[in-house]
Automatic annotation (TrEMBL):
Matches recorded under SUPFAM superfamilies: P-loop containing nucleoside triphosphate hydrolases
Organism: Flavobacterium caeni
GO cellular-component term (any): plasma membrane
The keyword Oxidoreductase appears for this protein: no
UniProt-recorded Gene Ontology molecular function terms: ATP binding; ATP hydrolysis activity
Domain ABC transporter: 6-241
UniProt main location, coarse: membrane
InterPro entries per the UniProt record, alphabetical: AAA+_ATPase, ABC_transporter-like_ATP-bd, P-loop_NTPase, Siderophore_ABC-ATPase
Name used for this protein in its record: Iron complex transport system ATP-binding protein
Organism classification: Bacteria, Pseudomonadati, Bacteroidota, Flavobacteriia, Flavobacteriales
Length: 256
């Protein structure tokens, strides 16, 4: 197995009280990894802890084999990029200029873009299929377009790991499928690891290489097929009307 981009050791997350303990994860190059769990289980808290936005209660996060605390903020910006659920405030920036913000960790003190920077921006927009939006202003973009532009910005940052918090929120089914297929394509073509949290479990089951399942009892990482055979999906929801059908490989509603 390759050296993981990021891994954790006995991580305990939360604020004053722990909401998840003994979290041991490993994020490998070229993998699309979905983070799932019920509302309020701690998915966003886990992502914030993995990216050092929030400190752990105990345990360790390692980035490239070193404790994440050994990196400066500038060094971390070259190791992972983040797309959070909070939208950027409306601005007059063009889509191209929004994507160009991803090159900030590499520019000089006046923010001048080099030829390499421009090449990365162009490539990121091509990979995310937003080249035709380059001259459109931020405030004119739809939610789906803005989400793709945000991913292009993260891709332009050229980090081994891209972390997205609920990237399919506010998108219709067609755009959800399109976005997750895009993320899968990016992992295959760039060998980056993409970690994303989602409530779209059925889509994640179809497209993800691995899944991280958070339940009140524990947090488990494995391939979807392994999680299904181990009966892990039966532990997510405390509702007798929502059950996981192993044969169909999806959640179904019963006795409504």
């Amino acid at each position: 197995m390759n050296q993981p981009i990021l891994h954790t050791q006995d991580l305990q997350i939360g604020y004053k009280n722990a909401i998840a303990s003994n979290v041991n994860l490993s994020l490998q190059p070229g993998k699309l990894v979905a983070l799932i769990g019920a509302n309020g289980i701690g998915k966003s808290t886990l992502l914030r802890t993995l990216t050092k936005i929030q400190p752990p209660i105990s345990g360790d996060v390692y980035l490239g084999g070193k404790p994440i605390s050994d990196y400066s903020s500038a060094e971390r910006a070259r190791q992972f990029s983040i797309v959070l659920t909070e939208k950027l405030p409306p601005s007059n920036l063009t889509a191209w200029e929004l994507v160009a913000l991803g090159r900030q960790p590499y520019t000089d003190w006046i923010g001048k873009l080099s030829d390499v920077d421009r090449q990365q921006i162009t490539q990121a927009m091509a990979l995310t299929q937003v080249t035709d939006l380059a001259d459109k202003r931020h405030f004119t973009l739809s939610d789906g377009q803005l989400q793709k532009v945000s991913i292009a910005r993260a891709l332009a940052q050229d980090t081994p790991l891209i972390v997205l918090d609920e990237p399919t929120t506010h998108l219709d089914l067609v755009h959800k499928v399109s976005l997750l297929r895009l993320l899968k394509k990016l992992t295959l073509e760039t060998q980056k690891c993409v970690l994303f949290s989602t409530h779209d479990i059925d889509l994640a089951l179809e497209l993800s290489d691995e899944m991280i399942v958070m339940s009140p009892q524990k947090t488990i990482q494995a391939a979807p097929s392994q999680l299904i055979s181990d009966g892990v999906f039966d532990t997510i929801f405390k509702d007798e009307h929502i059950v996981f059908d192993v044969g169909k490989g999806k959640f179904i509603f019963r006795n409504l």
